[in-house]
Here is the input.
Amino acid sequence: MSDLVFAGQLALVTGASRGIGAATAKALAARGAHVILTGRNAKDLEAVEENIFDNGGSATIAPLDLADGESIARLAVAIGQRWDALDMLVLNAAMLGTLGPVPMIDGKELNRLMTLNVLSAQAMIAHFDQMMRKSGHARVVALTSSVGVSPRAYWGAYGASKAALEVLLQAYGEEMRNIGKVRTAIVDPARTRTAMRAKAYPGEDPSTVKLPEVVAEAIADLLASDFATNHRLVLEG
Here is the structure.
């Protein structure tokens, strides 16, 4: 197990049932954090929790649909009743949506995509803001994509959601800069072996892209460092 730099700290990871979210939860737990795992699939969350326990870490699962704002509110109340402060919040959960030209974007799907990729992140920040302020050194990390800053044909919906997420998080970081110790960071994992990437690039050989664990270790290293608010980390590949 790595040095327990996060011993006594509480972390919450969204989309923790698989991919980068699951790997990040394991990495944070390996460094001593108690990790709250959120996601829709309870069975997959239990598997991640079991892996963390087997490796000497600690975690709590919280199955929920992030598209349901009331679920986030209830989660915050439940966590607040058990812990005083939240030290790390990793906003990883997202959906890709259907890739296609902007005129063909389905309005209902776009609404679902924005709800999960943007509105749920705002709701998480809103409901855990007070717990993070109590931490004294809270860090918020949001996962993004290059299409959020460099528009790409047929990626308009997903790219727009990531651009909105970045602005939202950076604005929060600026708001916290002079009134609190909450720091924010954006991580672009680039080409990573996830289910979302397999959907976007069905013909790609998965062995040619890095594993989620590489991204997870980079996130854990970032969270352990004294980074300035609104730091941006772009991984290779």
Observations:
- Strands lie at 10-13, 34-39, 58-63, 88-91, 139-143, 183-188, 231-234.
- Residues 10-234 form a domain with the Rossmann fold fold (CATH 3.40.50.720).
- The chain has a mean pLDDT of 96.
